[in-house]
Design a protein that fits this description.
The protein is α/β, with parallel strands linked by helices and about 220 residues long. It has 8 helices and 5 strands; from the N terminus they run βαβααβααβααβα. The protein has a 5-stranded parallel sheet, with helices on both faces. The longest helix has 25 residues. It binds ligand Z5A.
Length: about 220
């Protein structure tokens, strides 16, 4: 099934998603890479999920509430409702303007968290994807991979109060890691695994090399 949502949105810019488990370093690298892409003369729009548009940010507050316990199908519906609004009002317009959109999490997070992590049927998730986004998909997905303990340690060191997902146990985070690696193995043309255990500069260099190889852009390191 395909809803045929805004097929022309794919025509101009590039849509790059950053995915991975907790504390993988996505946000850190998005700001570094955005700066380098801008320096190359390309206009960039950085955004995140859940959220990224006023409507989706409202839904984000519901989703990350540490005391609310959504059932898993409802949670997946909320993620896709937020994503549909984010796509329509922010991502698609930016792509039409020729911008490179760097998005901190996207649909692979629903596959990993609600699917692999919380047990929702992966086919059901693909149906929601079709309804919300049709044929639209990222030009490139960077999957930040690191051992679960390291990610959890980084989050503990940051000292913020944990959201609903950060409160989950080690087994849950292990299933997430497997989920992201399965996704990368299934779609190698779209996905690149990034070794997130390296120091920050080494991770940036790996991303710059990947953007050069896969999207043909030359960035200074
Ligand atoms: N979620 C979902 O369930 N389903 C969905 O469909 C979507 C999301 C879209 C959103 O959380 C939550 O929603 C998320 C999944 C769920 N679960 N959680 N939690 P969020 O938006 O609040 O946060 P996040 O996306 O999970 O980001 P994060 O894990 O908090 O961090 P990060 O962006 O990957 O990493 P960071 O902030 O750049 O770095 C974390 C710390 O590590 C920080 O102190 C850095 O200084 C440090 N760091 C970064 N890189 C390194 C290196 N290379 N070495 C050492 N230390 C480093």
């Amino acid at each position: 099934m395909c809803s045929g949502v805004l097929p022309d949105a794919m025509s101009a810019g590039k849509f790059i998603t950053f995915e991975g488990g907790e504390g993988a370093g996505k946000s850190t690298q998005i700001s570094r890479v955005a700066e380098k892409i801008e320096q190359a003369g390309i206009s960039v729009f950085t955004t995140r999920e859940p959220g990224g548009s006023p409507g989706a940010e409202t839904i984000r507050r519901l989703l990350l509430d540490p005391v609310k316990n959504w059932d898993v199908p409802t949670e997946a519906l909320l993620h896709f409702a937020a994503r549909a609004d984010h796509y329509t009002t922010r991502i698609a317009p930016a792509l039409r303007e020729g911008k490179w959109v760097l998005c901190d999490r996207f649909a692979d997070s629903t596959r990993a968290y609600q699917g692999y992590g919380l047990g929702l049927n992966l086919e059901a998730i693909e149906m929601l994807y079709d309804i919300s986004l049709g044929d639209f998909k990222p030009d490139l997905t960077l999957i930040f991979d690191l051992p679960v303990e390291t990610g959890m340690e980084r989050m503990r060191a940051r000292g913020d109060s944990p959201d609903r997902y950060e409160q989950m146990d080690k087994d849950f985070h292990g299933r997430l890691r497997k989920g992201f690696l399965d996704i990368a193995a299934r779609e190698p043309d779209r996905c690149q695994i990034i070794d997130a255990l390296q120091d920050m500069d080494a991770v940036t260099i790996a991303i710059v090399a990947c953007l050069s190889e896969r999207l043909g852009v030359r960035l200074s390191v």
